[in-house]
Known about the structure:
This protein is α+β, with helices and mostly antiparallel strands. It has six helices and two strands, in the order ααββαααα. The protein has helices spanning 2-15, 17-38, 78-146, 152-186, 195-203, 210-213, and strands spanning 43-55, 60-72.
Amino acid sequence: MIEAVDENILMAETNSPDLAAQRNRVEASMARTEVTRSEIYPTLSLTNTLGSAYSDLDSEFKADNNALLQLRIPIWDNRTRGYRLMKSEQDALAQKARLQSLRQNIILQVWSSYYTHQTSIERLRAVNDLMASATSSYEVALGRYKEGVGALLDMLSAQSTLMNARAQQVSAQSDWYISFSRLARNTGMLWSDNHEESMKMLDRFPAATIEEKDQ
């Protein structure tokens, strides 16, 4: 069961557009922090230029190779740059916190909807068993009444039990559809373009087949 929940959580994290957008914000904020940090510390760069030049003295082209080593040391306004770095780092931490919060919400939603759906499956199984028993009892009571060996009250009681079981079955089927739709939404299956992925999710719930729901 834990494995099935983990798979659903992974599916939700993969399919969630909100989570993908927040990951992009985290990456962007971290990139801005690195750029801001690079503006504070000294930088050393090497530029190499390779070309050729024509010599009038020798009447021929000669190779020309120039190398430039440049050291850049920020001096002015370094305190302001430090403040900008602190702000950039805080922004990056805030974006990471939002990402973690969003992930926790997704996990909570998947766990909740998964167990709600499992409960609806168990209830549907129990109600289907009740429906089968009530149908059998009603058929026996009706047959006995038609043969004149059963009481009308027994037949009416069995009929009432059958009607009650049928009402419970309709309610259980409705709960199944609602809980499955909520699980499909929370795992991102509703907005996933991967049909095979959607079918794999259906296969995780073998008790919730179309045949069973239509009984």
